[in-house]
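Dear colleague,

Thank you for sharing your sequence with our group. We've completed the structure prediction you requested, and as agreed, I am returning the results in plain text so they can be pasted directly into your records. Please verify that the sequence below matches your submission; if there's any discrepancy, let me know and we will rerun it promptly.
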Amino acid sequence: MKKILSLLLGILLLNTVLADEGMLIPSLIKAFESDMKAKGMRLSAEDIYSVNSSSLKDAIFQFGGGCTAEVVSKKGLLLTNHHCGYSQIQSHSSLENNYIENGYWASNLDEELTNPGLTAMRIVRIENVTAQVLLGVTSDLQKSEIKANIENIIENATKGTHYTADVKAFNYGNEYYLMVKETFLDVRFVGTPPNSIGKFGGDTDNWVWPRHTGDFSVFRIYAGEDNKPAEYSSDNKPYSPLHHLPISMKNRKNGDFTMVYGFPGSTEQHVCSSYLEQIITEERPSRIRMRDLSLSVIDKAMKNSELIRIQYASKQARISNAWKKWIGQIDGLKRLDAVRLKRETEQEFTERAMSNDNWKQKYGETVSKMNALSDEFFKYEYQYAIGIEYFYVGPEYFKLIRSTNDLISNYAKYVGEGKIDEIKEKMLKTSEGFFKNYNQEIDMEILSLLTQEYFSKIDGAKSFTATSVIASKSVFTCQERFNQFIQKFNKKSAKKVLKDAGYNHYTKHYAEWIANVIPNYRSFSQSMDVLLKNYVAGKLEMFPDKKHWPDANSTLRITFGQLEGSSPADGKVYTEHTTLDGIIAKYNSGNPDFKIKPRMLELFEAKDYGGYAQDNELWVCFSGSNHTTGGNSGSPVLDADGYLMGLNFDRSWESTMSDYMFDPNRCRNIVVDIRYVLWVIDKYSNAGHLIEEMELKK
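Please find the predicted C-alpha cells below.
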C-alpha cells in the first residue's frame, strides 16, 4: 500500500506541474502559480489559499449548500446570484409586497430579513488525507475500515472546535481530502433587483450569449457576540470576515486574466463512450420531455395570474434551468462528435496498456469492461433518472406526503415521548408554507401528464387513479382537508390514510420504483465506480504528460482563464462583453422576456452611468474561458490582483457539454460585471449606503 501511495503522490505532483486548465484544488495551487502568473496574475499562491493567514479563500462561501457567494465588506455583506437567492426572494414576496416584481432593498440592518435554514459555509482548510484513509486497507471491499478511518480523521480535525468536517473522495477514491468547515446559520436577505433585471431575458436568454442579465442578490452573514456561527437571534451582529473582496473598478479588455473561485457541483469527464452515447440519445431527451410537459402547464398559468407568477416563480426557474441546459448539452456534444472522441481516447488508453505487461494486467480490459457494463445495465441509470423526474421534480403533493410520513410512521413513538402536539404543530406550519405556493389545478394537470409519460417509459401502460378523485378527495391536495387530518390525527389515522387516493397512488408506485430500480441502479453505479477508479489510475500512470484534474464534487476549486469572446460555430463570432445598449435593443424587440421598468429607460436616455461606465458604455456582462459548472453560480470572478470583476452566473449554450467534455475553443462562462451590479444598487435602486461598505479599487 505504501508503494501505491508513493506512486500516486508522484504522479499527482508531476501532473499538477504540467496542468493549466480544469478545476484545481486550492491547497495545491502553489504548483500552478507560475502558469497563472504567465497569464497575467499578480498574486502569490499564499494570497489565494493559506491556512496560517487570511487569504482569498476566506471570502468565498458556499451559499445554501448549492451555490457560491462572496463577502465584499467588513460587515459580512454577501453577494450571490439572483437565481441562487430566488427561493428566499420568493418566500418573502406576496401580492402586497411583490419583491419578485419590484425588488427590495433594506435601508438599514433592522430591515434585513431572516431566512430560516439558509446557511453560508467557508472552508477553514483542505488537507490530503489519502494515506490516513487507506491505512490498513488493501482492497476496495474494505468499506468499513475506510469509514472508520474517515470518522477518526474527522474527529481529530474538529476536536475542541466549533468546526465541522468532511472527507471527500477524489478521482473515484484514488485520493481523499479533508475539508474543515465553518458554517454560519444566520444569513439575512438585504436586497434584490426586480425580475426585469435579475431575470432579464428569461428562458429566451437562459444559457445564451450575448447576455444582459443582472443576476445578483445581496445577503448578509450574522454571527454571535464572539463572531462565531450562531442560530438566529436579534442580538446577533454582522459577521466580521477574515478577508473581504475589494471591488475592481478598473477598465477591462479582451485577454485580461480571470480566476473563478467557488464550489462547482459535479462533472463526469471520465465516463465511457457507451454511457455518454446513451446519455445523449436516451436519458437526456426523456428528461427534457418530462420537463416540457410540466413547463407547458406552469408557463401557461403564470401568464394569466400574478398570484401564480409569485407562487411558481422559483419552481418554474428550477425546472426550466436544467431543461434548457440539457437541450444545449446534447447539441454541443453532438457538434463536437464527443462519442467519437471518447472512443479514440479509449483506444489510445487500451493500446498504451497493452504495450507493457504490468499495465496490461492492471488496465488492459478496463475500457472494454466499462462499455460492456454500460451496454447491459444503463437501463437502470435511465429508470433512476426518470423516477427522479416523476417523484421529485413532478407533482408537488408528493413532497407533502414525504413530509407527513414521519408522523404516520412514528405516531405511537411521539405519543409515548409526549411530543405528539409538538409534531402536529410542526406539520401545520409545514402546511402553511406548502399551500402558500400551491395550486391544485396546476398540480393535477402535471400529475396527469407526467404519470402517463412515466409509465410509458418505465413499465408500459398502466391504470392509475383518476386525478379528479385525487383532487376532490385526497387530504394532500387541499389545505383545509390536510389541516383537519393533522389536527385529528390518532392511532387509526395511519390505517385510514392508506385509503387516501393521492397517498395510495404515490406510495404504491414510489415503493415499486424503490424496490425494482434503486438496488439495480446502485449496483450498476458501484460497479462502474470501481472500473472508473482503475481507469483514472491508468490515465495518471500511463499518461503523465497529459493534463489531469479531479472531477468537480461540490468542493472548493479554482479555475483560471481570460476575458474573451468566442467563435462557437461557422459564421458565429461573439464579442467578449455586452452593454446597457443591448438591453434597450432587446426591450424594443417586444419579446415579453425583455420587459424593463421605466426607471431603466430614464437612466439610459440620460446616460446617467455615474462612475460605473467604461469609455461611455455601461458594461453589463462579459464572457471568459474559465471551466465552470453548476455550483459555480455566484462565484467571484477575480482579476490579476484578486479584486472582484463580477459574479459568474451561467455558461453559453455551447458550453453546457463541459460537464462531460471541455473544449477550450468554445466553452465560455458568463459573468455579470460588478460595475453593473453597483450601478443597479446605487443609481437604479438608490441603495448607495451598501456601496459605502465596499472597498472600491480604481
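Summary note from our side: Residues 273-519 form one domain.

Kind regards,
the structure core
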